[in-house]
Amino acid sequence: MNLEQISSSPVVRAPRSCRLQQAAELMRAHHVGSLVVTDDAPNEERIVGFVTDRDLVLKAVAEGIGPADAMLADIMVEGLLTVARDADVGVAVETMRENGVRRLGVVDEDGVVIGFVSFDDVLAGVAEEIAGLAAILESEREREVEEGAMDADATEEVSAEVTFTG
């Protein structure tokens, strides 16, 4: 399974000068848990970091920082770890583990961020794969039971035809 199959999009961007309240409103409006943080104009295409809903809670709300008082630059994670969209899930897991993060940017062939893959996305994808494996076992068991029933029918027919004389 590759990351493109389980990554989420769209990528929502906000400048580093964006107030935390505005950032939370963007997340809610777009149903996302993270924002790519860009530089301010005129360099708004340059990615400088990212921020998650978890960052808003742990780095702002829990510290008593008002959402109208702080900017994304105050709480964002600088830089953005990325993985290629055609990379295997194992690459994402290893990158997350090595760096102690729960979310990665997913990039296309040109290095453009096209989505995010989160720990939850990976877990859901792996769970789906495991469910598929469990379905194979169940299907095999059903087939064996069905074949066993057919074998039992054949055995009854054969034994009905055989008579023993003593």
Summarize this structure as a short list of keywords or feature phrases.
alpha/beta; 166 residues; 49% helix; 18% strand; 4-stranded mixed beta sheet; 6 helices; CBS-domain
Summary?
This protein is of the alpha/beta class and 166 residues long. 49% of the residues lie in helices and 18% in strands. It has six helices and seven strands.
Please tell me about this protein's structure.
The structure is a single chain. By secondary structure, the protein is α/β, with parallel strands linked by helices. The chain has a domain at 3-118: CBS-domain, CATH 3.10.580. 49% of the residues lie in helices and 18% in strands. It has helices at 3-6, 20-30, 53-60, 72-75, 89-99, 119-161, and strands spanning 13-15, 34-38, 47-52, 77-78, 82-84, 103-107, 113-118. Strands 1-2-3-4 form a four-stranded mixed β-sheet. A hairpin with an 8-residue loop joins strand 2 (34-38) and strand 3 (47-52). The longest helix is centred in the last third of the chain and has 43 residues, at 119-161. It starts with a helix and ends in a 5-residue tail after the last helix.
Distance between the termini: 66 Å
Shape: elongated
SSE pattern, N- to C-terminal: HEHEEHHEEHEEH
What is the helix content?
40-55%
Annotation field: number of helices: 6
Q: What would CATH call the architecture of one domain?
A: Roll
The fourth-level CATH homologous superfamily of one domain is CBS-domain
| Largest sheet strand order | 1-2-3-4
Class computed from helices, strands and strand pairing: alpha/beta
* Biggest sheet features: 4 strands, mixed
CATH class type of one domain? Alpha Beta
- Low-confidence segments: none
Give the rounded overall mean pLDDT.
Answer: 87
| CATH fold title of one domain | CBS-domain
- Radius of gyration in whole Å, from Cα? 27 Å
Strand content: 15-25%
